Amino acid sequence: MEASHQLSGNINYENDIQPMPTQYETGMPAGQLPPGTSYQAMKTAVGLNFDVFREPRGVMRILQFIFCICAFATTTSYSNSMRFEVTCSNSSLPTQVVDLPFSYPFRLDEIQEPKPYCHDGNPLHLVGNFSSDAQFFVATGVLSFLYCIAIVIVYVTLSDMYQSNGLLPLTDFILTVILSVFWLSGSGAWANGLNGLKMATDANRYREEMCSKPPNDFCRSISCGDYSGLVISVTLGFLNFFLWASDLWFLYKETPWFKMKQTTGGVGAAA
Description:
By secondary structure, this protein is mainly α. The protein has one domain. It is built from ten helices and three strands; from the N terminus they run ααααββααααβαα. The chain is rod-shaped. It starts with a helix and ends with a helix. The model is unreliable at about 1-10 and about 265-270 (pLDDT under 50).
């Protein structure tokens, strides 16, 4: 009797065991998991959440990362020069070419040609210092670049904490406001500095300084440079301001301020 009862229990236990589906039942090749299984397993095991890049705030961070690099890179990599062809009267020297290069951070007052031309006088040197505007613009770009990297790491690795802890989205929102203001003020200052740079590198004023005794002396400007690269940097600066400012709405929706407003509105409607 006991043996029969034990046998019956064993039979019931074996019936409870469900076999694993084979590759023929799932329709998948051997060793391959159903779609989404590997991603969910990795997400659970490592604790990473890449779904943020499907949300507006994640997409905006990618765009901000790209365009802030372009903005400060076009400024720091810029170089230009003014070139003059000088022919002096009462001189056995042949026609000379004067080259006055300038680049970031645009401290023109530190650039000079060590010797005067065609007449006795002081060495030729450029006038103007636009380093503060240019460096503030570049610093804004670098800070934005670093912040994008840091906040994306927070989005991916601390997603649950970001959703549950109101301090993180609030800090993210405030820092984005600050960087938006930096982009607006930095782009405006750099646009004004660029106008000053163009006037300070006007070839006519230096041509008159090198050849103060026309028509005996002859000076001709060969090239005064191209400022299209810096114009692009200013345009990218205002584009970055638009990207950072437009991202504020998506970040505001993650803050306790918005959630509290939604909760209060829901309670009022229910009452």
